[in-house]
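Figure 6 in text form: structure in, sequence out.
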């Protein structure tokens, strides 16, 4: 498949799972998702995994879920390959996630972010997310502190699409 000038964002397919796993291990080496977790997310929420594809391979992915009442969503993961950071791919992926959620009339988006991940925090704040209180100690287990960030969605509001990279 020839390379594209502009990487395309699309829903993941089953054949993408090994590449999503590779990206997850690359970006989050201390806590990657096991393959079976990605597989189960795909089987249960396949339309909730977006990938960015340049025609030669995946450069990033986003994984999100929506609550059963459809009013809120959690972004569980946003990952961009280290060699592709700084090109706006994280911002594009988050923009696609937010556009999808707006089209579904989701009211609120939440995520967690490592409080030391300044690039991710800047990206999320630039998209309109705000911090929900102080850092939550041991939120994801011993020593795994997180900030919770939220965004109230309004129909018709589209985030700026400049640059950024992040992980929850």
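Output sequence:
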């Amino acid at each position: 498949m020839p390379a594209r000038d502009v990487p395309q964002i699309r829903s993941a397919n089953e054949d993408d799972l090994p590449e999503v796993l590779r990206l997850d291990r690359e970006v989050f080496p201390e806590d990657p998702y096991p393959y079976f977790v990605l597989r189960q997310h795909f089987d249960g929420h396949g339309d909730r995994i977006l990938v960015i594809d340049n025609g030669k391979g995946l450069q990033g992915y986003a994984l999100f879920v929506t609550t059963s009442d459809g009013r809120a969503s959690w972004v569980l993961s946003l990952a961009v390959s280290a060699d592709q950071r700084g090109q706006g791919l994280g911002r594009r992926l988050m923009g696609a996630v937010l556009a999808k959620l707006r089209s579904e009339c989701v009211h609120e988006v939440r995520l967690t972010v490592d409080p030391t991940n300044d690039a991710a925090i800047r990206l999320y704040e630039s998209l309109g997310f705000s911090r929900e209180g102080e850092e939550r100690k041991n939120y994801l287990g011993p020593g795994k502190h997180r900030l919770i960030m939220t965004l109230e969605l309004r129909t018709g509001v589209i985030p700026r699409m400049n640059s950024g990279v992040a992980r929850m």
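Caption detail: The chain has one domain: 8-152.
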